[in-house]
Amino acid sequence: MSFLTEETVYCPYCGEPIEVLLDPQEAGQHYTEDCQVCCKPIVFSVTEDAMGSLSVTVRDENETY
Ligand SMILES: [Zn+2]
Q: What pLDDT score does 35 carry?
């Protein structure tokens, strides 16, 4: 049984919509993936709310943590 959630985010550089699959095991983690359109590194942050549902936010790599 899978709890993968699909969500659409937008590239912080070029605005291209990107579909991501969220894995509950990734909650609280960050990972970087290159945009398939503009090839710039996008930082994905996966968060879990109190209800246990996952959401993802993106930012460009140059933003400070
Ligand atoms: Zn892009």
A: 96
What residue segments make up the domains of the chain, in order of their start? 5-60
Average pLDDT over residues 31-43: 96
Q: Which residues surround ligand 1, an ion (CB under 5 A)?
A: 11, 13-14, 16, 35, 37-38
Q: 50 CA to middle of ligand 1, Å?
A: 31
What is the SS3 string spanning 2-52? CCCEEEEEECCCCCCEEEEEECHHHCCCEEEEECCCCCCEEEEEEEECCCC
The alpha carbon of 14 and the centre of ligand 1 are apart by a number of angstroms equal to: 4
State the pLDDT at residue 4: 83
